[in-house]
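Replying to the earlier thread about multi-chain prediction with a worked example.

Input:
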Amino acid sequence: MKTSFLAVGVLAAATVAMPAQADKLDDIIASGTLRCAVVLDFPPMGSRDADNNPIGFDVDYCNDLAAALGVTAEIVETTFPERIPSLMSGRVDVAVASTSDTLERAKTVGFTIPYYSFENAVVANEKVEMATWEDMKGKTVGATAGTYEAIWLEGKVKEWGEGEFRPYQTQADVFLALSQGQLDATVATVEVSEANVKSGNFPGIKIVDKAPMVPDYVALITLREEYGLINYMNLFINQQVRTGRYAELYKKWVGEGEPANLTIPGVYR
Amino acid sequence: MFNYNFRWNQALNSLPQMLEGALVTMEIAVLSMAIGITIAIVLTLFRLSGIRALSAVAATWVEIARNTPALFQIYMVHFGLGGFGIHLSPYLSLLIGIAFNNAGYLAENFRGALKAIPETQTRAARSLGMTPIQAFHNVIMPQMLRISFLPMTNQMVWAILMTSLGAVVAMNTDLYGVTSDLNARTFRTFELFAIAAVIFYLITKAITLSARLVAARLFRY
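Result:
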């Protein structure tokens, strides 16, 4: 009698003293809110509508993820360079921010499987004679600082050894500079390029060519050690494709046509 | 505090690049101060001239430079002038933007310094047969620069710190630009910006300390 009483007491004390290690996934579900970092000057992935509400592919993607988790989504606006500080300082739980999954970055943050893939276009000022992407050699070119295409383009300019590379802070500034003729050409995702040529906000620009880059696979990111959450998000991305939601969001934000295939033939993930 | 493992060795490998960036930062600060001081003296002369149009120019300059953000001024040099077909490189946009800001603040410093110099000195100089320009150049200006020497070093520190605003005009060779470029590649945000902050601190500290030494030597009474 006495011993069993003691045993129950010890057991109870142990349960109180050693709660199961709660990870980020638990924290999100317990708090009832999923905080996503989204870049909102990167249409069609993220932007604001006339009433200043966040909209776009990434915004919907975050909402879907929150719905799957059974929590409410909170969109935290971020810039490309601010993604990591907001994650590390715990201001957001994940970044749904078109983050290219480079090996260099994977040393610091945890990437899921790709949830989207961009192809990039070369866009030029109409007054500049350009026929192919290689005509960028020797010209003044620029792109949005901190993006995959900016890193690629800067590398090309260094390789060519002539011309100038300028990293502007936002996609809007890149197109403003291009429209004014401060830049001869830029490399931007096909989605963004087409949206900007169509919108008429930046007169005097034209799409010249596709940029010969490896497709820019982008993934969701969170802290590197949050395997539980990464696992969950991998399955979530798989389900988005499986259920047709991926194609639906593509049609809603990007346009007609097939969204990019997210698998790479000939290799396991 | 937060979930981050500092990996200093990787970030320290970038130190040579960042130091090169620091040189560009100092170059811009020094040039912008040289241009700023020159323009500020001209603006001060405009104010002293008693010609209404000229003092209006000086007043407008000072008002805009002191009452709008430096970020805005630099942005306008690049994109504002760009709208009129005047295309300046990021380097020039940043330099001109900071010089514009410096000139406004320094002109105001000079005005304060002038108030500390008794007006009778000008009259005395004039009565010795100096022209107004000579009186300003030989008697007033040296004292004005001496009185405003320490405020000038203040502005120099500001100029160093303002170079980080060059990012809005795509400046990527200065200390901030180099750092944020490295950050985009590696995501080692905290190490890189901590190193940049230390470099900024050392530069500005060196400026204030050496200014004090110079002042102690030059301005001994």
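The radius of gyration of chain B is 21 Å.

Feel free to reuse this layout for your own posts.
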